[in-house]
Amino acid sequence: MYSAPTEAAAKTALDELAGKWGERYPAIIRLWQNAWAEFAPFLSYSPEIRKVIYSTNAIESMHARFRRAVRVRGHFPNEQAAMKCLYLTIRSLDPTGRGRARWSNRWKPALNAFAVTFEGRIEIND
């Protein structure tokens, strides 16, 4: 459904899902059907933007690393110490400092789509 080119195609995919899994997982099918009005506007975005919207793996990974770093240390004497721990956790993700170039290459199609869709609201620096 996420990659369907139109709302009608997504609805067809939902019907196929319901046919295959509806008996075994009726609550999930009802959830999709009840939330269709909220999901449909998502389909108006380009595929590049959709991929960014429904893919939160990078954010979840960052949160997992934050939780791990905080759990290992247990407690902090003050807020500044906690902020330093989180800062060092972020820095350890890209110790060479070259990650921004790799990040921008992977995100270039999505950034271009955002710039077109939301003209004037986002700037892209090459």
From TrEMBL:
Transmembrane segments: none annotated. It comes from the Bacteria. Keywords: DNA recombination, DNA-binding, Transposable element, Transposition. One of its GO terms (molecular function) is transposase activity. The keyword Kinase does not apply. It holds the Pfam family Transposase_mut. GO terms for biological process: DNA transposition. Belongs to the transposase mutator family. Required for the transposition of the insertion element. This is Mutator family transposase.
